UniProtKB/TrEMBL annotation:
Residues 45-189 form the Phosphomannose isomerase type I catalytic domain. One of its GO terms (biological process) is GDP-mannose biosynthetic process. It is an enzyme of class 5 (isomerase). This is mannose-6-phosphate isomerase. It comes from Neolewinella litorea. Residues 1-21, 144-170 are annotated as: Disordered. Its EC number is 5.3.1.8. PANTHER family: MANNOSE-6-PHOSPHATE ISOMERASE (PTHR10309:SF0). CDD domains: cupin_PMI_type_I_N. Its cofactor is Zn(2+).
Amino acid sequence: MYHTHLPAGVRKSRPLTESEPAGSLQRKYHCVKIYQTVSQLYPFDGIIQHYAWGGYEYLPRLLQRENPQHEPWAELWMGAHEKGPGNLRDDDRTLADLIAANPRAMLGAAVAGRFDSRLPFLFKILDVREMLSIQVHPTKAAAEKGFAAEERDGPARDAPDRNYRDDNHKPELGVALTDFYLLHGFRPLEAIRTTLADVPGWQTLRPTLDKRGIDGLYERVMAADQNEIDALLSPLVEEVSDGTYDRDQPRFWAKRAVEQYTQDGHHDRGMFSIFWFNLVKLTPGQGIFQAAGIPHAYLEGCCIELMANSDNVLRGGLTPKHIDVEELLRHTTFESVDPELLLPVPADNPWREYPTPAPDFSLSVAKVPTGYPITVDARKAPGILLLLSGILESGQYRLNEEHRTIFIPAGETVEWSCISDAEIYWSTVGEIK
């Protein structure tokens, strides 16, 4: 998919290994600055979403902008989603306007045909300061069925108790930019059974687990009335209130859940999931894929997220928002999950790609030293190039720490010259069959 071109007369001796410093490329190759004429590309600025759970410093610093009102900057959206399409630079249009005006030219015939003339992914950077809600996303077939039913019978698309706001699935890939903590899928049966002996007040749940398994146990606490939830969680709340814990301990996050969600003595039922789901730590560069049916929640840290265009979320706690227990249970995977931490695998040097099964998107990363040229191949599908650090130039186009994102239409092959050591991410469409 991607190609790295060396200057004429320069022979590539071998790929750069993970252990070699990026600067070693400069010693291997004669590096030159490349000037070329490229077809029209579309630099744009992403949209900040100021959700209450967001951080205050990471995104303003990344974008070289002030935050005088000390607002939470939760997400940077880089895409054409109708709720936050990127703004083209030196143009009064959005990226969504650009694509809608000529989808076959911008997306390519295959992508436009497969994805209803829309860019099928949304590229984000998240700064998670407070815990996000526990979520499950439906399959494509389930989303189509659920959306059609709610379109027919209600509620309205913008109603707070709406489950399906569109007819799409929502697979997600997250890649850590800092140490990043999350919940992902159910733990093994025996590990969950251990929590019922370890957590005060939960011993009475043991018969439910023994008779009905993990799904029966989860259904019991999700369907219980608030009085029963408070009775089951109060001993734990009292225990953690004065304790000190590390982030690799569920009690650390249980204590934070109390601080964030307990109100008037009423506790959030998502606290059970903190103990029953896998607690995962990603270090920078590690990724994880959220498939349909896998319950998950982001807890803390900064990450890149690449996802299919959808707003379909079935919530399971750690939230004041609507929880449709019946629909949640219908689409949750209860089998134990061994979290698979993803590292990018070699593509065409120096590109490395995060492997996922999603047809909607693909994410690759490259670290390029000063003077080294790199090609982005968008011949089959369009994409968004994100410069995380450094400087890139191609003809009249320049990416730097003030202007980090550019949309490359389908059919283009763009060669960039690295002016300063760069870390870049390329988000595009998955394999079109």
